[in-house]
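Chain A, query sequence.
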Amino acid sequence: MKTTFKITLLAFIALITFQSCEDMDDVAPPASLEVNDFIWKGLNLYYLWQAEVPNLADKRFANQSELNTFLSGYPKPETLFQSLLNKPVSLYPKKGEAVDRFSWIVSDYLELEGMLQGTTKNDGVDFALYRKESNPEEIYGSVRYIISNSDASTKAIKRGDIFYGVNGTQLTVSNRYTLLLNAENYTLNLADYDNGKITPNGKSVQLTKTELAENPILVNSVIETGGHKIGYLMYNGFYPNYDIPLNDAFGALKSQGITDFVLDLRYNSGGSVQSATRLASMITGQFTDKVFSKQRWNNKINAFYESEDPEALKNLFTNAIDGIPINSLNRTKIYILTSKSTASASELVINGLKPYIDVVQIGDKTTGKNVGSITIYDSPTFGKTKRNPNHRYAMQPLVLKIVNANDFGDYVNGLDPDYVLLENVANMGVLGTISDPLLSTAIGKITGTAKMIKKSSGKIFPHFEDSKSINGVQNQMYIEKVPEGLLKSLE
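Chain A, predicted structure.
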């Protein structure tokens, strides 16, 4: 941003935020309300649905004392946070009721920062969960892939393995299965699968979670068949610290002269908007400086941007990453593999590319997350600088909606595939080979060879949850930094 624009923006936001509560800064909140005060003021400024939440209205409290009285009614910061959201899924759990399904708060921002970069306490088993046909209350899991250099990578567990319990306890909807699976040390009880019937086989695997940085580039290869050189990339998370390795992976594909490209996002639940923009630029290359996507913030912030600096609301295709040239493929057509786990930044890539190239989507309908977040800290500017040393709370609230160059972004129910093919746990295949039914289908569409399409036989059960959605924090689409100059420093 230009300096003059920063100054104007600082003054404007400070004015509209505090014009009706002039005493907010004159009376500091008591120490017991510091976290709650930070939550209310951060959401009042940034929250996407601020205008729809009466308790976040700019004129809701005349002064800090009135705000303190309100905040004191919420002993737990997490309870206050949920109460200030627009129909959060925690309070509106029935399908279709919730408006805000993805805003998040954490008590330790160090853990949050690591997760957004792909670093978690992880045993290395990425899995999907399904309800049993015989008893929908009971859950079973299927291993989707094993993360390299993890504890699981040294154990007898692999893609396609089935599990039914933890420490001998059957996983169920009501027995807090998330706590069982999130334990740092546990034993995973394995089973055999027969067309929906889950039978314990007496085998088990002991797993331990450690600090693990997941490289999201799981498979990068070229498949030669039918006169085509098909590039295949499985990419499992939009983590900014892997943007350069991702660019190198595209360089490897480009150097081999691929004729077609399959991007596998079926297990990618999202991440950085900037990384998504860079990925789209690697796929293409012929649209540098054109609009990839547009941001729409809440009314008071968006109106100012549109008036003073509308370009700040645009994410543009680029040809470089911090001065390093992008290895672009100049594709005019792409095949993208998706599932119910495909969310946020992955959906952004699909939606953002559609106005420019032919996007063929194969698999299942995606999650339907067209909104993004920022990390908000308890600091004078809500950024990382001068954070409150008394606690480590941080918020990841939804603050913007993202649309493509044609202004389309209404896919809260997910993006529909052109060719529907759900994964069958009885026939997972090997990732990156024609034994994988989804990749085989893409190859069949590329080559026109119908025999390459390996549809799974047997029953297929609807996706219930997966390891990333249980985690919650990894199911995000976010802007990496709080926009500069959005709040006057109170120093």
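The first helix runs from residue 3 to 18. The first strand starts at residue 104 and ends at 106.
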